Amino acid sequence: TDGGGIEVSGNSTVLSGVQADSCVSAEDGGAVLIEGNDCTIKDSSFNACRSVDDGGAIYVNGTNCLIDNSSMTGGWCISDKGGAIYFYGSDHTAKNCRLDSNIAMVDYGGAIFVDAENVTVDGCEFINNTAGNLQDNDKLSIDDSDVDLYSGGAL
User: Fold this and answer.
1) Contacts of 113 (CB under 8 A, 6+ apart)
2) How far apart are CA 138 and CA 19, in angstroms?
3) CA-to-CA distance for 153 and 114, rounded, in angstroms?
4) What is d(CA 151, CA 143) in angstroms, rounded to the nearest whole number?
5) Cβ pair 116, 94 in contact under 8 A
6) CA 30 – CA 124 distance, rounded (Å)
7) pTM for the complete prediction?
8) How far is residue 106's CA from residue 137's CA, in Å, rounded to a whole number?
9) Where would I find the beta strands (DSSP E) of the chain?
10) Which of 69, 76, 107, 135 has its CA 20 to 30 A from that of 54?
11) How far apart are CA 133 and CA 149, in angstroms?
């Protein structure tokens, strides 16, 4: 019951123009769970998606995943990390994304939780994201992003 809307196991996955509303996962990835390398999610919108565990909207386990020009709004994870996105593995990028009002109810990463090496956030906007705890992570690079550290953390 991972990936409430889409579950992918494989490499070179491209998801474009996805519109996911109110998707639910009993485990990881409220809307999307990707296990694989070289994936792209672009020009997509995830609204009110939720997971019991990690990644309210998106859970990525692999290397070299790009999330570009996408929005995640009102997502939440109930018992774990990453109200909108959970990155695991290495070399991931979130670029030109809007993350608004996402919640990690118990743990870290109101918008994004990083359990990965070399993650870059570039040109993203973080608004009103909250988490039960703040994440302290030296594996994350943030460039040209507007971060509102509201009530416990965007990251």
Assistant:
1) 54, 55, 81, 82, 85, 86, 87, 104, 107, 135, 155
2) 32
3) 13
4) 22
5) no
6) 21
7) 0.89
8) 18
9) 6-9, 14-16, 19-21, 24-25, 32-35, 39-42, 45-47, 50-51, 58-63, 65-68, 71-73, 76-77, 85-95, 98-100, 103-108, 112-122, 125-127, 130-133, 140-143, 146-147
10) 69
11) 12
The token pair at 143 is: 């460039």
Structure tokens at 122: 């570039």
- Report the distance separating Cα 106 and Cα 115, nearest Å: 16
**pLDDT (tens digit, 9 = 90+) per residue, 20-54?**
999 999 999 999 999 999 999 999 999 999 999 99
